[in-house]
Input
Amino acid sequence: MHDHLLIDGRLVAGAGLLPVIEPASGQVFAHVPRADALQAEQAVAAGKRAARDWALVPMDKRAAVLEALADALQAHAEPFARMLTREQGKLLDESRGEVEGSIAALRYHAGLRLEPRVLKQSAGELVVEQRFPLGLVVAIVPWNYPLLMLILKLAPALLAGNTVIAKPAPTTPLTTLMLGALAAEIVPAGVVQVLGDGGDLGPLLVAHPDVAHISFTGSTATGRKVLSGAAGSLKRVTAELGGNDAALVLDDADVGAIAADLFAGATANAGQICLGIKRIYAARNKADDLAEALADLARKAVVGDGLASGSTMGPVQNAAQHRRVLDLAEEARALGRIVGQGTAPAGDGYFIAPTVVRDMPETARLIREEQFGPLIPVQAYDDLDHAIALANAGDYALGGSVWGGDVQRAMAVAARLETGLVWVNRVFDLPFDVPLGGARASGMGRHQGIEGVEEFTQTRIVNAALR
Output
């Protein structure tokens, strides 16, 4: 089910093979097909060709294809979840949640419709805003949520009448290839295609003049390369990039009630979530109690294989990320004070112990950079205005959260955070009908909601004189 690429409606062998490493063992556990430049060109030609007919298919029928994909994924939910854990590392329950979320996202988008909007109407004129598909979309997907991030691109793009080439991250290609095998039975030729990639196809696809839109989720550094590559053909780009989200804990917060949510916000998926909590600023009167509560949770965490029933946190996804987070932990140990740490298993897996660090300088890398791992810096503050300024410092502006007893006051603080999303007394609430997108270096464009579907369309104004 994962040993073929999907190109122009056919399941085909790759030009070569790509080894896939299981994060829990650090060992190669599968070899998957890898496309070369020729196969990428074939996929682009097929996608462009198929786009003409797919755009003419009524939206109700396109929605029915999304429903059929959801049914097929539901029928194979458990094998998808188990493979997701093997290739990505997350807990099996987290993988099941990702598969269920992917099914729900397909069904949600199948229920949406793009309708024309009347902008002006009188006896003498009618002005209508219509939307039409862009053409061929390339979906470049990250390794932290390989299935869900793909579906959140694929579903709105297909509903809007575009064709899609899916390009998974080189370290997590398996569930994407499995989805391609399902799509081969359901979707017309060329409408959905899947290319395994050794890390070299991105520039070709991004710069290709026959690709109309790039939907990219990943690091800000790669996002800059995507924008640069897309500039030559002035193609549309939607980019969800890095985040360094701050959690502001106010002086009236109930530490006992929020500690578990803050810990989950920082360590779910081993801390590898764009909108996860990356740094905590706690009012001085709450900082000690909060840090101790988080440290206690860190010490109780059971880091292990995501398929093992007792594990409460899996490994990080790949060797490069493992090295990077360990480097950040080493600097944090030198610059701050470790107040609590879990234990990571020995062996070759990419395991990292959840670690709570107190009061580092704001210049520390763990404060300035996105760690994408289970390291939790807690910074005490005396002045709320200063804490808000620190939360807003830096290039990233994806999300954040505010935690306090007085909700109206907490919302007033939230209104001063210059990010695309701010939660108040909650985290990871991401309903599909609420659009979101990052500010500044955290990206551009919108995901989810009808706005996320409109992202894959071009506006056309029809301006008629009524005579």
